[in-house]
Write a structure and sequence with these properties.
The structure holds two protein chains of two kinds. Chain A is α/β, with parallel strands linked by helices. In chain A, 40% of the residues lie in helices and 17% in strands. Chain B contains nine helices and 14 strands. The chains are: A alpha/beta, B alpha+beta. Chains A and B meet through helix 1, helix 2, helix 3, helix 5 and helix 16 of A and helix 1, helix 8 and strand 14 of B. Chain B: It comes from Anoxybacillus flavithermus.
Chain lengths: 366, 330
């Protein structure tokens, strides 16, 4: 059945209301409001739906560190690519990772040179590949935030139950709370509020983000990904800012609960434990990721296949500053010239949630 | 050393670069490279010829199979240049071990699809390659047709852009059929021959400017190519582009854009504004065209950009497919 919608009038009315509130903010505080969308899916959706462009000059929307590919450190990317050097291995990964440029090439290049690199849509598929190839080692590259970590746990659970011994995971997962604390602690960007990630909140629950209001006195709104959802969340953020009320609102109630997905959180914590993680352009943040508990080391690719770390080759890529909200993608000298989706230098141009890719695909006018 | 990657075959920016840099520049037939089928005169007849290889995975999918796709795809390439499809040749590359009963089913579908449009399958070739050298079955078809309605291809400001139905159905149907997404969907591929539908439209308007079937790269890439090749600026209305709910849902889940998903039973056409209603009525009179819609307008004839007007009233420029990781879908 075809969808017959007339969102146009509703969207434009809400857009107008957001603009009016933003004007009032500017009159009150003498500057335009700055909100950070934490999640890469929001970055893409804001650009694709035209919300970002429509609010230019009214609201500054800053892309945050919520794209899993973009925040993966160069050393980690190099290590993941060098996993293909081993014999008798099948490397499984999510699509975007195959095109990320490491210091010495990409997974895609390794694939075209004959290495067995496979794109899967779920880590559980990698377990199935391991079952089908019992004489090869299948390694899944486990990147992602709280949205993905339970799915990684589900794959490990399946491998454990089926006693699949030739399956392992190279973990490089990230958690949202520590990076938000780090950004607020560093104070490099002045923010008036956060547009919180709907998908991560679905797992973690609204209460998980209350620290923003109680400890940092900053408002935040959990939002869905349609234009109307995001405009509604921005409207709430503006109202809260004008009233100078720091609360964390759930504007995505159809999906997000107070406590989140208890079952998903249980399985995350069953297999994995907190670990320090290196973030691209930021450095190592204490307890900002999750890795295997030692009792599950048989699934830990870092234990099974230790790789000596190499000094990464430096480029002029400024993805690190993009994910910290310090610059917009066009401010990077490589953007749209040396760095394009066909020839990406940095991960923000590769990822389907990347800030540079969003700009290149949806906001470039030439 | 630069090598061919899967992205060179996705119909987007890299495929365009490959065709331009390697084939067109060497074969030196730039004019013909713009169209789905090349036209040429033979005696008193104006003919059209096209060729296409089908390497889809999986071979069987909801709404069709590789054989139906191979025949329909080639008929469609002829139909959209205003030709009556007449004859098809087909060439099979079969992997050792492929079940003969599957081959029979595929060939039966080819015969049925060709019969719908009264096209004769007249010559062919069969090659069998060692197990592991191919993925089951590949089919190449070449088609020849007689031009009945030469298209004028001169577009004016105000011309209407029409699509014959919802976009992205084939892309999603095939992705789901691969079973890798963990999705269950009722979406069927739109895979079908469009000659009869196109003939109705051509009866309704003698002045259809241009037609294309938006296969790999989807509606957006096809229209970007038209804009660049003919120097026209087209503005699409996002809300007018028909997209089925299931397709939209799958795209949201997977981060795909329906405008870039392949179609195998849709035609996009540019017609003078005055003929818009007659063409729409003609398309809607056929089952394949019941959801036909006007989706945009030619705004200028000198810039060559594809623009999309969002429901918020903003416009953004659309480019060729870049960087999406889509498996083989046609």
């Amino acid at each position: 059945m075809l969808e017959v919608t007339d969102h146009s009038t509703l969207s434009q009315m809400l857009l107008q209301e957001v603009k009016t509130l933003a004007d009032r903010f500017q009159q009150t505080f003498g500057r335009i409001p700055s909100f950070m969308e934490v999640c890469g899916s929001h970055t893409m959706a804001l650009a694709r739906t035209g919300v970002k462009k429509a609010l230019e000059g009214y609201v500054r929307l800053i892309s945050g560190p919520g794209c899993p590919v973009c925040v993966t450190d160069q050393v980690t990317i190099d290590a993941m690519i060098s996993l293909t050097d081993g014999v008798n291995r099948i490397i499984c990964t999510f699509g975007d990772m195959v095109r990320v440029l490491g210091s010495y090439g990409t997974l895609m290049q390794a694939k075209t040179e004959g290495k067995d690199v496979r794109v899967v849509y779920s880590p559980v598929d990698a377990v199935r590949i391991a079952e089908q190839h019992p004489h090869q080692e299948v390694i899944f590259l486990g990147i992602g935030f709280e949205t993905t970590i339970p799915i990684l746990a589900a794959a490990v659970k399946e491998a454990e139950e089926k006693q699949v011994r030739n399956f392992s995971m190279w973990m490089s997962t990230k958690l949202v709370e520590p990076i938000l604390r780090q950004l607020l602690h560093d104070g490099e960007v002045a923010l008036d509020g956060f547009l919180l990630p709907g998908h991560v909140s679905m797992v973690m629950g609204r209460k998980h983000f209350e620290f923003l209001a109680t400890e940092y006195n900053i408002p935040a709104v959990i939002s869905g990904f349609e234009a109307l959802d995001m405009l509604s969340a921005l409207r709430h953020l503006l109202l809260l800012s004008l009233e100078q009320r720091a609360v964390v609102l759930n504007d995505y109630k159809s999906v997000v609960t107070e406590q989140g997905n208890v079952q998903a959180k249980y399985w995350m914590n069953h297999y994995f434990t907190l670990c320090d993680e290196a973030w691209r352009g930021i450095g190592v943040i204490f307890d900002s990721g999750m890795d295997f508990k030692s009792e599950y080391n048989q699934f830990n690719a870092k234990v099974k296949f230790p790789i000596p770390t190499r000094e990464p080759r430096r480029t002029k890529c400024r993805c690190g500053e993009v994910i910290r909200g310090l610059i917009d993608p066009p401010q990077c000298a490589l953007f749209g010239r040396a760095c394009t989706p066909l020839n990406p230098i940095g991960p923000c141009m590769v990822s389907s949630e990347g800030s540079c890719a969003a700009y290149y695909q949806y906001m470039r006018e030439e | 050393m630069e090598r061919i990657t899967l992205a060179h075959g996705d119909g987007g920016e890299l495929a365009h670069k490959l065709i331009t840099d390697v084939f067109v520049s060497t074969f030196r037939n730039e004019r013909h490279a713009k169209f789905d089928a090349a036209t040429f005169a033979l005696g008193t007849h104006e003919l059209a010829v096209t060729t296409d290889s089908f390497v889809i995975k999986p071979i069987f999918f909801p709404g069709g199979n590789i054989g139906k796709l191979a025949v329909a795809g080639t008929i469609n390439d002829l139909a959209v240049v205003g030709a009556i499809p007449k004859v098809l040749t087909c060439s099979f590359i079969i992997e050792e071990g492929f079940p003969i009963r599957h081959l029979k089913t595929v060939v039966q579908s080819m015969a049925e699809e060709a019969k719908k449009t009264n096209v004769a399958i007249v010559a062919g070739d069969t090659k069998v390659v060692e197990r592991g050298s191919a993925d089951g079955l590949y089919i190449n078809t070449t088609g020849i047709g007689i031009i009945s309605h030469p298209l004028e291809r001169n577009m004016d400001e105000g011309d209407s852009v029409i699509v014959s139905g919802s976009v992205g159905d084939h892309g999603v149907a095939v992705l789901v059929a691969r079973g890798e997404l963990g999705l269950v969907s009722t979406i069927e591929s739109d895979c079908t021959s469009l000659y009869l539908l196109v003939a109705k439209a051509l009866e309704a308007s003698q002045r259809i400017r241009l037609m294309r079937d938006p296969t790999r790269g989807g509606l957006a890439t096809t229209l970007v190519e038209i804009c660049e090749d003919f120097g026209v600026t087209i503005e699409l209305e996002e809300e007018c582009i028909p997209v089925k709910k299931e397709v939209k849902g799958a795209c949201e889940l997977l981060g795909f854009d329906p405008l870039y998903l392949a179609n195998e039973g849709k035609v996009v056409m540019i017609v003078p504004k005055e003929d818009e209603q007659a063409v729409l009525d003609a398309l809607r009179s056929q089952p394949e065209g019941k959801d036909a819609a006007v989706i945009g307008t030619v705004r200028a004839t000198n810039k060559g950009q594809l623009l999309l007007r969002t429901p918020l009233g903003t416009t953004r420029r659309l480019y060729r497919l870049t960087g999406l990781m889509l498996p083989r879908i046609c």
